[in-house]
Specification:
Layout lengths: L11 H6 L7 E4 L3 E5 L7 E7 L6 H7 L2 H17 L6 E4 L3 H4 L8 E5 L9
Antiparallel strand pairs: 1-2, 2-3, 3-5, 4-5
Bound molecules: guanosine-5'-monophosphate.
The site of guanosine-5'-monophosphate (5GP) has 12 residues, from strand 2.
Length: 121
């Protein structure tokens, strides 16, 4: 079972943030990192993560500062422009076991360049 209350520094995104494993960076600033998903589910599939440690959107929404919450939301618009997703895109954040979360560091998926249909497959 994924723990969404206690942060586990062994998770893969924590290793990416520490530079221990590589990623294909799309956008980075003081607060966030965005990189290509290793197993893309659409022609564009990017993950946005905060540089601070939060287990999930649940943890982030309750405990992050207003500043970092603003930076995460603003980054969605900036990154979608950079990726030229003017035709639209989908964002997803999976939370915990029932949400299907695999990596316990809060992340937002941006999926684009594909016509999305149903919310769930
Ligand atoms: P979740 O199911 O937790 O919402 O999504 C985790 C995502 O992380 C998946 O889409 C998966 O393909 C991606 N992922 C897992 N390991 C790695 C990795 O080592 N590098 C990158 N770039 N993406 C990864």
């Amino acid at each position: 079972m994924i723990n969404i209350k206690t942060y586990d520094e062994k998770n893969i995104f924590s290793k990416i943030l520490r530079g221990e494993i590589p990623c294909k960076t799309v956008f980075e600033n003081e607060f966030i990192l965005a990189f290509e998903d290793i197993n893309p589910q659409a022609p564009v599939h990017v993950l946005i993560i905060p540089k601070e440690n939060y287990c999930s959107l649940q943890d982030f929404s309750l405990n992050a500062s207003d500043k970092i919450i603003l930076e995460m939301i603003r980054s969605i618009g900036k990154i979608s422009e950079k990726l030229e997703l003017e035709n639209g895109y989908r964002i997803i954040s999976n939370i915990g076991d029932d949400g299907g979360q695999e990596v316990p560091h809060f992340h937002i998926h941006i999926l684009g360049k594909k016509k999305m249909t149903k919310i769930l497959p």
